């Protein structure tokens, strides 16, 4: 492979199917010169106010994008499965969500407007009226993750287009094909080429050069906390940002809960996309009255999930994104079991990337499965007797994102919800529930800012206030006689 040290060097990236590690496509990586051209072009567009796209043109592009995505849904599904490994049923749901995310962007664009600022409330503010208008924040650079290869890209790019920002998007090296497909659709829908560009690189130094350039107005990051916080610390002065990381989402189950109902609700939250979800249900704290029975029932159902080829409709759990992740997850499982945790099901490497859905009962509280995000098909069930203990354990980590509580008592539901350190609490539902227009925010080390279509659109714009001074506001002219 050629060295990336010169602009003339050409590197290729092989996209592989994580299920069988077979090659899917080959992508040419971008060079430092490509990154400079993308930044220079995007910044020139932003600085030329006469070149800004009017709202009706942006709206027309997004509406046409919806039509094209609907027409090509099956193609988009196949692309996402081959490069990302999410089972067909779940990938179909993701593509439908991505289409709806563009629709949500259209709705937000139609309703996101400025505000009237009160004037005349003091003598000094008399004879004036004031209002705000929304303007683009600048060049948006979006760095995305592999686990939802289309919908995450839509969440970062569509609001930028709606805001009127030129956008440069860097997809995960494992899953660039869905990003290419979406950007191509935007251009086919009428978006001029310079307003949305894709940069593909596996070179972290080049990625950092892109993100930290002084011409970047807004940095959108979805990925690991270790990378996101470091990049944020290196941003140029004035660059705004939003970071979306993850956490080890907690669930609290009270003793009055129906074990079978909770089991069915949490099965999806624990094992959806092989646990490769930033708000996957990972630490389940169940009252001692039901903890053993619940853990046994969850393990029984988990052992019956179909693990295999994500192209097949019957598959429940597909592969991890790469073999190294499977090896890491297995190491964490062995650590928990060696420390005294009871392995109820799973704990097996099925192939280089397929891992059996795993349930561990009473894992050590200091093991990595209980303190870090596993990002795999593994869940721990931990018994509690006093709810204060459950809350202490749930809130004990430096990460905080989604959480859940299961109970039949609405007062207990509210009390526990109020006690949980989380940006969102799902009552009688799993932690991975999300509607794409709702606020989606990691707290503390789990992120910065608020995601969700309308919230991202707001982040990618700035308020410009216009203050109009005129004497007629206080003393209207005499009306002409009728």
Percent of residues in helices: 25-40%
**What structural class do you assign from the helix and strand content?**
alpha/beta
CATH class of the largest domain: Alpha Beta
Large-scale geometry: globular
What is the typical, i.e. mean, pLDDT? 95
User: What's the arrangement of strands in the largest beta sheet?
Assistant: 12-13-14-11-10-16-17
What is the number of helices? 15
Task: Quickly count the domains.
Answer: 2
Q: Could you give a short description of this structure?
A:
With 482 residues, this protein is an alpha/beta fold.
Features:
seven-stranded mixed β-sheet, 15 helices, six-stranded mixed β-sheet, 2 domains, Aldehyde Dehydrogenase, Chain A, domain 1, Aldehyde Dehydrogenase, Chain A, domain 2, disordered N terminus, alpha/beta, 482 residues, 38% helix
Question: What this model shows, in words?
Answer:
This protein is α/β, with parallel strands linked by helices and 482 residues long. The chain has helices at 32-47, 55-71, 73-84, 88-111, 151-163, 177-188, 204-211, 225-233, 259-271, 291-303, 323-338, 368-371, 387-394, 410-419, 453-459, and strands at 12-16, 23-28, 116-117, 128-136, 139-143, 167-170, 196-198, 216-222, 240-244, 249-253, 281-287, 342-345, 358-361, 378-384, 399-400, 402-406, 424-427, 443-444, 447-448, 461-469. α2 runs antiparallel to α5 and α3 crosses α4 (88-111). The longest helix is centred in the N-terminal third of the chain and has 24 residues, at 88-111.
């Amino acid at each position: 492979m050629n060295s990336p040290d010169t602009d003339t060097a050409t590197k290729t990236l092989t996209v592989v199917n994580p299920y069988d590690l077979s090659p899917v496509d080959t992508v040419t990586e971008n060079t430092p010169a490509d990154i400079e051209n993308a930044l220079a072009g995007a910044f020139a567009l932003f600085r030329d106010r006469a070149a800004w796209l009017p709202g009706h043109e942006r709206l027309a592009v997004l509406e046409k994008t919806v039509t094209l995505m609907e027409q090509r849904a099956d193609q988009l599904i196949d692309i996402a499965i081959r490069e990302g490994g999410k089972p067909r049923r779940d990938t179909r749901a993701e593509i439908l969500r991505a289409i709806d995310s563009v629709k949500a962007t259209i709705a937000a664009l139609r309703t996101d407007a400025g505000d009237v600022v009160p004037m005349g409330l003091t003598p000094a503010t008399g004879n004036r009226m004031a209002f705000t208008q929304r303007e683009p924040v600048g060049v948006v650079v979006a760095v995305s993750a592999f686990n939802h290869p289309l919908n995450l890209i839509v969440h970062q790019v569509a609001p930028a287009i709606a805001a009127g920002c030129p956008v440069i998007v860097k997809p995960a090296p494992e899953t660039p094909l869905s990003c290419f497909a979406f950007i191509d659709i935007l251009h086919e829908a009428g978006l001029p080429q310079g307003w949305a560009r894709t940069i593909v690189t596996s070179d972290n130094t080049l990625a950092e050069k892109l993100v930290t350039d002084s011409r970047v107005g807004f940095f959108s990051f979805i990925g690991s906390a270790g990378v996101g916080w470091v990049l944020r610390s290196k941003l140029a002065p004035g660059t705004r940002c939003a970071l979306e990381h993850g956490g080890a989402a907690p669930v609290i189950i009270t003793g009055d809960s129906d074990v079978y109902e909770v089991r069915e609700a949490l099965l999806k939250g624990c094992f959806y996309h092989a646990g490769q979800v930033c708000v996957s249900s990972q630490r389940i704290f169940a009252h001692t009255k039901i903890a053993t029975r619940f853990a046994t029932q969850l393990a029984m159902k988990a052992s019956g999930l179909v693990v295999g080829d994500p192209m097949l409709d019957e598959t429940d759990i597909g592969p991890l994104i790469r073999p190294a992740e499977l090896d890491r997850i297995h190491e964490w499982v062995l650590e928990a079991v060696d420390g005294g945790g009871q392995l109820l099901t799973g704990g097996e490497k099925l192939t280089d990337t397929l891992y059996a859905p795993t349930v561990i009962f009473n894992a050590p509280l200091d093991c990595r499965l209980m303190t870090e995000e596993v990002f795999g098909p593994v869940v721990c069930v931990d018994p509690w007797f006093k709810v204060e203990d459950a809350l202490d354990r749930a809130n004990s980590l430096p990460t905080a994102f989604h959480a859940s509580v299961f109970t039949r008592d609405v007062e207990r539901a509210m009390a526990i919800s109020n006690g949980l350190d989380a940006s969102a609490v799902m009552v009688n539902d799993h932690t991975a529930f999300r509607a794409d227009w709702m606020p989606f925010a990691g707290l503390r080390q789990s992120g910065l800012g608020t995601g969700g279509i309308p919230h991202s659109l707001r982040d990618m714009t700035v308020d410009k206030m216009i203050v109009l001074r005129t004497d007629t506001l206080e003393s209207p002219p005499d009306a002409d006689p009728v």
